[in-house]
Amino acid sequence: MSDVAGKLWGVGIGPGDSELVTVKAARVIGEADVIAYHCARHGRSVALGIAKPYVREGEQVLEELMYPVTTETTDHPGGYRGALEEFYSEAAQRLGTHLRAGRSVALLAEGDPLFYSSYMHMHKRLSGEFDAEIIPGVTSVSASTAAMGIPWVEADETTTVLPGTMADDELVRRLRDSDAVAIMKLGRTFPRVLDALETAGLADVAWYVERASTGTQRVIPVREVDPTSVPYFSMVVVPGALNRPVDDSVSGGDTEADVPVGEVVVVGLGPGADRWTTPEVAAELARATDIVGYKTYLARVSPRTGQRMHASDNKVESERACMALDLAARGARVVVVSSGDPGVFAMASAVVEMAAEPAWEHVGVRVVPGVTAANAVAAAVGAPLGHDYAVISLSDRLKPWETIERRIRAALEADLVIAIYNPGSASRTWQVEALQKILLEIVGADRPVVLGRDVGGPDEAVSVTSAGALVPAQVDMRTLIIVGSSTTRVVDRVGGAAVFTSRRYGPAVD
Question: pTM score, two decimals?
Fold first, then answer.
């Protein structure tokens, strides 16, 4: 046994092309006393094949580390995981014998040693006793995106790498929440991965890359893949939204001027905080050529280079919708922004209503939901919307006050919690006082009332009061009011006050 232990090298050798092995990796492979490599039970090693030009044949010890199982079943008492744990321990002992004898060991790792590689199992077992150094390598993700030939991520987009072995629901969730995606570990998991892409709405923009950087490399749209022929060394790549093709299938054909028709997507930014803008909304904003909206809401959007911003006043919803549809009819990909959820007293109804007109019936329209102001205010105090509730706007700009009052009275008589939008503005100063009079008449002064102003924004203010103590002058257009029902409770707690509406209402009914 040598007095000086050898060194363990974790050598990343890239995805398959021997010319993608780094200069340092090639030098260490050529200088090492022992070349260690993993292989399946068939005895062929992809890693050794990649490193072959740098191995001194006949002059170095080749240490084959053969997996006892790969995808097949095993009769090991510890099952699949137990068989692998035993294998890794035995492999570490074999490499440790070389290292204690003073021999340097280069353990080959396809791609990068710490990126879904078997090297890490040896590193965790041996690095505490021996000097260990990792040489990074070109990953299969880098090789696959290069083979695809389409920019994978751009600007502020993020990347997500997923194993195809994930549970179906979780895979779909991650796909929907991600910008650019790479899915590894395919093989027999490919049909499930394809189903997840279909469910997440990404199958049309996903690419399949097989054996990237090798002479047998294939790059095809994911829907053209034969699921029965997918090898383990393959990957699905989804580019970020900025580099996905615009889907014109919703257009129903070209316009009379032969201009491809675009699309209008109505989105909700959430009530104030950027964290309440969903990943789906962020992706639509990133893909847009034109963004349309009320100037205050548009100020919350950071446009990328080349995007056209179209700001307008808050009282021209129909005109704003027409402008968006006109832009889309001329080929633009238009996003119309609303605060909160676009379908709650916001732009979705205006856009969909105008899209029903013959002039724009060929333009595709989609609505992407957002966090509502009512939900945000409710969450700030607990759970006042925990039972049945109504949502009513106090704005009488598009409907008469008599209709509003009739609906408020009906909701109170039905003992519903009420979330009240648009309570007042510079030109509407009397509606909250009128609301208070109705509350005092029907439910009394003690009925709980929650006021939430600019929730999620820099001027957030949330308070809990009662119908009798409500001060109408303190309520403005940026305030949302929640009026409790007979089962709404305000609880003083050591950990902070909480408001909730019980889900139990009267005697249980089967």
Answer: 0.58
